[in-house]
Amino acid sequence: MNSCPDTEEWHRLLNFSAKLLGESSQIVFTLVAASLLEEHVSEALDKAVPGSRTDRNVSHWRRVDLLFKIGLLTENVRDALRFFANIRNTFAHQPHATTFDDPSIKDFAVKLQAAMEKECGNGSDIVFRDQNKALDDKYFAATGKREWGHTVARTLFFAYVMLAYYLIWAKHIAPAPNPPKNINDIGKHVCTKIPTVI
Question: % helix / strand / coil in the chain, to the nearest 5?
């Protein structure tokens, strides 16, 4: 039987994510979340291909592509990671001029959301559907605002949480001859119980 992700790691990730979104600027949240996803990608690939993490010549995109080619990422997760990184790069290259209202950011966010919906199903089928109120309550406690503020912020937050969830699984099951087909498939694993997150 495949091992399960560390529940404590998952709780830390979710609580940190809500706190980060509540206490950071748009650019800080985006850059930190993107960096954390890159770290998860590196850890998963290093588990599947030992030594890959220390190779400085392997770019983030090469690592994502390798995880996809060895079957640990679905096409939708690969695409979502790309759109998330595109948002991050837009902020990084124009940090003083870019906001969540920037047309290019909104465009990438729409594509990111579409990739996540293809991966997870539409709203009612997403594996985190039972966590929406808990996440909203946590964000409200941190910021005094409901519904995570901006729609792009909400898209980035849920994409980050879901992609990190997927990558934690990839790290724990790599290398695996029969990896889960998608995020919902992970949620049906015999040992998985989505924790009451917050």
Answer: 70, 0, 30
